[in-house]
Amino acid sequence: MSGSIAVIARIVIPAALAVLAACDNSPWPKGAASENTIYSAMIENTPRHLDPTASYWSNDTLVTYQVYEPPYGYHYLKRPFELVPKTAERVVTPIYLDKNGKALPDDAPGELVAESVYDVPIRKGILYQPHPAFAKDEQGRYRYHAMKPGEVGKRNAIQQFEYTGTRELVAEDFVYAIKRHATTRITTPIFGVFAEYVIGLKDYGELIKKEDATLREGLDPASQDKPFLDFRRWPLAGATAPEPHLLRIRLHGKYPQWKYWMQMTFMAPVPWEADAFYAQPGMAERGLTLDQWPVGTGPYMVKEFIKDRRIEMVRNPNYRGEPYPCDGSPEDKARGLLADCGKKTPFVDRIVSVVEREATPQRNKFRDGYYDLEVFERTDTGISYIVEALDSERVRANYEAKGFNFPKYSDVNSYIIGFNMIDPVLGGGPTAEDKLRARKLRQAITIAIDWDEYSKIFPKKGGETAMSPLPQGIPGSREGTPEGINPVTHRMVGGKAVRRPIEDAKQLMVEAGYPGGRDAKTGTPLVINYDYYAPPTPERKPEIDWVVRQFAKIDIQLEVRATDNNQFQDKVRKGKHQVFWTGWNADYPDAENFLFLLYGPNAKSVSDGENTANYQNPEYDKLFTQLKMLDDGPEKQAVIDKMVKILQDDAPWSMGFYPWASTAVQSWIANSKPAILIRDHGRYLRLDPALRVAKLAEWNKPVYWPVVAIVVLIAALVAFTRRHLRRRERLNARGELLPA
Amino acid sequence: MINYIVRRSLYGVLILIGVNLATFFLFFTVNTPDDMARLNIGGKRVTPELIAKWKVERGYDKPLYWNEAKAGSDKLTDTIFWERSVSLFKLDFGRADSESAGDIGTEVARRMWVSIQLALPIFILQIISSVSFALLLVMFRHTALDLAGVVFCVVMLSISALFYIIVGQYLFSRVLRLVPISGYTGGLDLLRFLVLPVILSALSRLGTEARLYRAMFLEEIGKDYVRTARAKGLAETAVLFRHVLRNAMIPIITSAGGYLPYVFMGSLVFESFFGIPGLGAYVIEAITKQDFAVVRTMVFVGSLLYIASYILIDIAYTWVDPRVRLS
User: Fold this and answer.
1) Which of A371, A341, A379 is nearest to A354 (CA)?
2) Which chain B residue is nearest to residue A184, measuring alpha carbons?
3) Residue contact A361–B176, C-beta within 8 A
4) Where are the beta strands (DSSP E) in A540-652?
5) Where are the beta strands (DSSP E) in A87-157?
């Protein structure tokens, strides 16, 4: 007995105390806080695709925009967004040619333009990241381009290859990347758009299908090993490299929005060596694909990719070090965003992101300082903290002490409630009178839905009330100006836009033939279905109820038909929906990327396009075809104004809101200026590790005594039980205690 | 016994066929390959051509159950159902539907070890703590301590596992700051991430299990052989541990054995909340992504493990109680 107590006293207790002393709540290894590494979370999963041809999810941009460099990018600080060259020498103006191949002036009408030619000079001296695909032996042969089956062995990361190499970026890499959109091997979400414009790409797609079938003839179709599809073998008229550093892209007609595609990773260069390397036997099976191990020229490269767990990017040693921008607004200057003017980027050595499946641990780690940016690629993570600080004085003081000061702004995406225009009630019957009645009904509803109220009730999800489909910051948008107000839903009172009174909506209901929410002819109540895209979970229910209440203001009974997204999409494709909620994240800052959502030929139920409202208006469609070909300027503004006016009058949507954006970022991170369109912000962020170490130590002091108390309590219980048992053993049948 | 095992295994095959049919039918009723394609390709610019391409890439371009275009037995075998079912029974799980279509078998093998790292300590701690606590209550039966213990068990079993997780994470990670709130890593450092979910999981089931075991022990303790043991002068601990515990093993094995599949399959809730990338988290991810291939595989593997567990439980009965004969 005394022996065991001695063992406990000498070994177990000191060991337990030592273990306890080593306890803390840091999810990172010891000493990690002092390194020049940014830690952040990924929501639910690792990125879906890192292959630039396939990647179209915002989660992917954590990696893709740090690794790949398309020809252009956006200026980090300037608003409205301005294109700047990245791997290109400059942002070029296209040359327009008529149908005879003769050059046209820059301001030639779009209808005359048969072809646009973009001659993009590529910067010299840009090197790819070190990668085994480029490794050569002493004789100049690629070390890893002729691997035999089984030679990959147990490797599952590119770092496990002994040799790496690099080479200079050339225009052919961009040509290869454009051709690659015709591949049969991976999902290519933008092939349809590119094939519409890039000369010859549509036919190229068919050619590649045939060539690929020939290559794979006789091979196991289920095998992950597929022969190298070398796009260099087949030329494409619309993408060529007349000189090593000159990229020529030829488009059908005029398409001013093309310049924005050139800042997306769909246009990032792809070295043929990468495809040749990853096409070898055994690579795909070991997860060695461009989809997990990208090859780029950007400031970072992937060092670790553990699917659905963790991604680590490190500084690309071959990156040339682009300077931090020097131009910005006075507000940028006041916030210290110009302090690093001209310094070489990137500032941070590593970016580590780990998967978080639940919001609570993710947010708590940020609150405790273990995430520097809560979610690297998200621009909405700060809103919750702003709302919480407004709700509670104690929380506000706590957040202020921690330096949580996240600026709030509205971003270039939008949420709306739409009406299915092919529905007889909301879109109207065949006669002009029916259509007029339906329009008045829609207008009444758009007045009744009070989006300011929505943003007050749901501040974490709300935003600036929209007057048109075009958010602020998009050239042509008049949001925030007196001219920009929607006259159907708002009026100016004392210089401010005020929503029209509900009486106006009720009057419109009378004119629409639904006085008091009943059909004037039959007396039956007006019941409209609200087709919601998700099940009414406790989180969503209040929002759904809020929408129902808005319709009830004008006595419309809104029947909620909440389903899962698949069923909702199915209903939409069949045109069986009535009122629906949807949103749009912009691809690029051009009015075309918003107004196409109501372009007739894009009607969802007709052509499976993005026009979920099935809105068809010949005048609007005609204006849209003009708009597509116009450069920013007064003429384009006039067209946009006309289109917006049509939409406001026709009301196929209740123009919802532009959600607020704000990024949760710690005080030791400098140069954060979030914007949903700017995804390559990793290179601009600067970290102060010393401040982080100090703050983490201050915020996360472990408290040991409750654990000691629990252990003492358990020990006391054990001792009591032991004593009780021993005593019971010594009791005789009469309950007398026998001597020990 | 061999006959019995063979017979049970054959029943198991029938159950697996049924499970396979049900999951295939249910999944395709609510979720067509077109729906899966739309979700996986993305929310924007999804064209019919892209959907067709996605389906071809994953072998979903064939009819579901019956291929009219084919002749003879190919009408049945050249279908999605046949191809997917046969490969499943050969334990060739194929590739995932989503993303870069990784090999499911490799992923299951990798993640199973992660799940075991969490679930095995939970399994062992749960049995030890529940049995110990139940024995403690039995030792003090019909006393105030026993009553308090039973009330404690009822309170414990009335609380959802989510409550334990949220309060546990808040208390131990945010207030006491002793363990990370969630995460996963390799090596010895892993212990820091596992200690909280293991304790909380064991705690969340302590009430249910201990109350059940207490009832079993109390039933045994009133039997004649216990009285005889006491009459022989055996100490109470010897009576409880050597006789009562052994004779109460059958319900303990039944109850604990039912948990065995989770040791391999992982816990959906705990893995999700604690950021542990095991099979439980894999299932949740697959459901989120509507990855039919993964969900179906996991349902199949789960059924397989259940069947195996219950055969093992039956065999274990003969080991703890020689009177039991499997025939």
Assistant:
1) A371
2) B53
3) no
4) 557-562, 579-585
5) 95-97, 103-104, 115-121
Structural domains in chain A (count)? 2
B264 in Cβ contact with B279 (< 8 Å) = yes
d(CA A32, CA A694): 13
- How far is the C-alpha of A388 from the C-alpha of A381, rounded, in Å? 12
Whether A575 and A710 share a structural domain: no
Specify whether the CB–CB gap between A237 and A96 falls below 8 A: no
Nearest in space to B206 (alpha carbons), one of B102, B122, B118: B122
Question: B288: which chain A residues are within 8 Å (Cβ-Cβ)?
Answer: 44-45
Q: How far is A208 from chain B (nearest CA, A)?
A: 13
| 8 Å CB contact of A192 and B284 | no
pLDDT digits (tens, 9 = 90+) for B55-84: 887 888 888 888 888 888 888 888 888 888
- The verdict on residue A453 lying in a domain is yes
A502 and A598 both lie in a single domain: yes
pLDDT tens readout for residues A136-177: 999 999 999 999 999 999 898 999 999 999 999 999 999 999
Q: Which of A344-353, A711-720, B271-280 has the highest mean pLDDT?
A: A344-353
Q: CATH number for the domain including A620?
A: 3.10.105.10
Choose the final residue of a domain: A659, A676, A692.
A659
Secondary structure element (H or E) that encloses residue A303, with its range: strand A300-306
pLDDT at position B152 over 70? yes
Does a structural domain hold residue A651? yes
Residue A551 included in any domain: no
Nearest chain B Cα distance for residue A245, angstroms: 32
Type of residue at A411: D
**What are the tokens at B297?**
């595989």
- Domain end residue (candidates: A633, A659, A685): A659
Mean pLDDT value of segment A396-405 = 91
Helix-strand-coil percent breakdown of chain A, rounded to 5? 35, 20, 45
Say whether pLDDT at B291 is over 80.
Answer: yes
Residue A418 and residue A492 in one domain: yes
Containing structural domain, residue A497: 413-523+566-659
Q: Flag whether pLDDT at A271 surpasses 60.
A: yes
Domain assignment of residue A60, yes or no = no
Q: Tell whether A572 and A645 lie within a shared domain.
A: yes
A121-141: pLDDT as tens digits: 999 999 999 999 999 999 999
Across A232-257, b (16+ Cβ under 10 Å) vs e yields: eeeebebbbbeeebebbbbbbbbbbb
The per-residue pLDDT for B196 is: 94
The tens digit of pLDDT for each residue in B89-115 reads: 888 888 888 766 678 888 888 888 999
pLDDT at A580 over 70: yes
pLDDT for A381: 93
The reported pLDDT for the residue numbered A97 is: 97
Between B58 and A211, residue with greater pLDDT: A211
In the three-class reduction of DSSP (H, G, I as helix; E, B as strand; rest coil), residue A307 is classed as coil
pLDDT given at position A4: 62
Same domain, A655 and A578: yes
Residues 451-510 of chain A with CB under 8 A from chain B are none
User: What pTM does this model have?
Assistant: 0.88
Q: Give yes or no: residues A577 and A708 share one domain.
A: no
Which among A37, A256, A272 has a CA at the least distance from the CA of A145? Answer: A272
Tell me the average pLDDT of chain A.
92
CB contacts, 8 Å: B184 with chain A = 309
Domains annotated on chain B, with CATH: 2-90 (no CATH), 104-320 (1.10.3720.10)
Cβ count within 10 A of residue B67 = 17
Model pLDDT for residues A674-699, shown as the tens digit of each residue = 888 999 999 999 999 999 999 999 99
- All residues of chain A having their beta carbon less than 8 Å from the beta carbon of residue B287 are none
Per-residue CA distances from A683 to A315, A680, B121 (Å): 9, 7, 43
